[in-house]
Amino acid sequence: DVKVTQSSRYLVKRTGEKVFLECVQDMDHENMFWYRQDPGLGLRLIYFSYDVKMKEKGDIPEGYSVSREKKERFSLILESASTNQTSMYLCASSADSGLAPPMQFFGPGTRLTVL
Amino acid sequence: AQRVTQPEKLLSVFKGAPVELKCNYSYSGSPELFWYVQYSRQRLQLLLRHISRESIKGFTADLNKGETSFHLKKPFAQEEDSAMYYCALSGGSSNTGKLIFGQGTTLQVKP
């Protein structure tokens, strides 16, 4: 079974702090994703990475950055946390596929509260 | 622009009643559509994808390109179906698996 783990289930930070969210997958997947999940808005893609050191902006990258130094690990960084970044953050991974888009495997999520 | 719309935030039905969760999409090419589900206190997981044309846990979904819809259906709802359901679209132009999700619909099955 694919396992995607996230470093924290719950996190409370203060406005202006630098925040690191870590995600690790154990299935040698090429692609990794960071989403935020908000009621009424669904999942919105922040960033994704299709290879080590490669990244692409998603739909809402402002205020975030990412790092992928190793294939199994994808980090989301909030350079200066703000209250509007209070949310549930989901990490996902998928394998490169041939013909059909691959399914994504999700982590349990990190609920971040910024005070 | 690529978009997925789930018009219902909440769908509440009684056990044994039919269920239809609506999903409409906007995409100019040939889309790949998925349904993901999140049960209480569990992680988001794939329920089904249109390319597989399979039934999972009694759910089916048919891609209707004319109506640009991919509604999720089940003839007889069970209490254990209560969950958050997301419809998702892959643009199909790459194999990275990048998805666009709808807003989600909470299905509540009452006893």
Describe the structure.
- The complex is a heterodimer of chains A (115) and B (111).
- By secondary structure, chain A is mostly beta strands.
- In chain A, 0% of the residues lie in helices and 56% in strands.
- The mean pLDDT of chain A is 93.
- The model of chain B has no long low-confidence stretch (mean pLDDT 91).
Question: Could you give a quick summary of the protein structure above?
Answer:
The complex is a heterodimer of chains A (115) and B (111). Chain A is 0% helix and 56% strand.
Labels describing this entry:
heterodimer; A: 115 residues; mainly beta; seven-stranded mixed sheet; four-stranded antiparallel sheet; 11 strands; 0% helix; B: 111 residues; six-stranded mixed sheet; three-stranded antiparallel sheet; globular
**Most extensive contact:** A-B, 29 and 24 residues
* Count of alpha/pi helices of chain A: 0
- How far apart the termini of chain B lie comes to 41 Å
The amount of beta strand of chain B, in percent, is 35-45%
Cα radius of gyration of chain B in angstroms:
14 Å
Shape of chain B: globular
The biggest beta sheet of chain B is recorded as: 6 strands, mixed
**How many beta-strand runs of chain A?**
11
User: Low-confidence parts of chain A lasting 5 or more residues at pLDDT below 50?
Assistant: none
Query: Helical content of chain B, roughly?
Result: under 10%
- SSE sequence of chain A, one letter per element: EEEEEEEEEEE
